[in-house]
Amino acid sequence: MEFDLIDRIRARVASRPDVVLGIGDDAAILQVPAGRQLVVATDILNAGVHFPLDTASADIGWKVLAVNLSDLAAMAAEPAWCTLSLSLPDSDADWLDGFLDGFLDLAARHHVALVGGDTTRGPLSIGVTVHGLVEPDRALRRDGARIGDDVWVTGTLGDAAGALALLQRASEPVLASACEAGPILPADDAVDPHIPEALSDLRLRLDRPTPRVAIGLALAGVARSGIDISDGLLADLGHVCTGSRIAAEIGIDRLPCSQALAARFGDDRRRELQSAGGDDYELCFTADPSMRGRIEAIAAETATPITRIGRMVEGEGVRAVGRDGVLWQPRQSGYVHFGD
Ligand code: ADP
Ligand code: MG
Q1: How far is CA 47 from CA 106, 112, 152, in A?
Q2: Burial tier of 122 (Cβ tally within 10 Å: 0-12, 13-18, 19+)
Q3: C-alpha dihedral over 223, 227, 229, 233, to 10 degrees?
Q4: Residue having the nearest C-alpha atom to atom 2 of ligand 1
Q5: N or C: which end of the chain has fewer CB within 10 A?
Q6: At 120, is the secondary structure helix, strand, or coil?
Q7: Pocket of ligand 1 from Cβ distances under 6 Å
């Protein structure tokens, strides 16, 4: 079965001049430009863990590449090539065609060539490795933040987690009403979670995240450190703090919020989703305050909001503070796959 599927993939992939040898041999051969460093990232998506079981295959295809491109964006690397490991329960050509629609659509937007992979039978699981390029010492790392840096985030936070919360409510209304988080929706919320359209704008952010590639590239030489928000802002900014051996103080009420999220969740729940919810794939980065003008220009050029949410300070860990200056704490910070 694998060969039919591999042929289907091979027939649709686009190449680029620096692919010396693509799909078909034992390995691909790629021409790395002189004087640039290779940046490599891998992410796996498992059915039921990283995407709801009913997710359309085109959305899965988009998302598995998007989460990988997001890692390159967070390093300020320019995406170039990728490989694809598919574990599929059966040889379903329709599923694969849909998957390739989403995957290759996003690949084309970023001029990424699919140059190889592996295809096996097994539980639905998809792994992608992306390869990007960066000028030496221009990558944004987690250990580059300094005391006094501003902390910034792109886009809006909490939408993907909001979609998941609504999906879980729709499928398990009894569980949700007994949820210790209290009422999830404000009293005046007229949205019926059983109507699919009620979810659609948030669900789009869950299923079709936008990797912030152009912003990441523009931040090389502007930001000091960066990370993408996959596990939740507090957890991911926490990695920057650990890597840089300093602390962050953020304003919990300064976190950028979409209209869709604000319309469906009360303040407490919204704060929780925005700070601890995963899957947004926005960038969080730190930069010297002298860079504020440059960062505002990048926001204008990319037509994407970039919001200053706090600063790096002495100490360790992330402190979130409310408008009133009072310390704010989430019940849970970030998704832990192998946690207790
Ligand atoms: P091998 O036995 O040498 O690993 P395979 O039969 O697994 O060869 O793969 C044949 C060719 O097809 C290789 O070039 C491999 O990179 C490519 N390939 C296999 N699966 C995929 C996939 N899911 N996406 C892209 N290329 C693939
Ligand atoms: Mg193989």
Answers
A1: 20, 24, 32
A2: exposed
A3: -80
A4: 26
A5: C
A6: strand
A7: 6, 9, 23-26, 84, 86, 114, 116-119
Rounded CA-CA distance 331/229 in Å is 18
Distance (angstroms) between ligand 1 centre and the Cα of 32 equals 21
DSSP state of 5: H
Kindly report the number of other CB atoms within 10 A of residue 156's CB atom. 21
pLDDT tens-digit readout, 78-114? 999 999 999 999 989 999 999 999 999 999 999 999 9
Q: At what angle do helices 57-74 and 196-207 cross, to 10 degrees?
A: 40
203-229: per-residue pLDDT in tens? Answer: 999 999 999 999 999 999 999 999 999
Ligand 2 centre to CA of 65 (Å) is 20
Mean pLDDT of all residues in 22-26: 97
CA angle 78/10/95 to nearest 5° reads 95
Residues 6+ apart with CB under 8 A from 102: 56, 57, 58, 59, 60, 61, 62, 63, 65
Which of ligand 1's atoms lies nearest the C-alpha of 22? 14
Of the bound ligands, which one is closest to the alpha carbon of residue 114? Answer: 1
The letter for the amino acid at 12 is: R
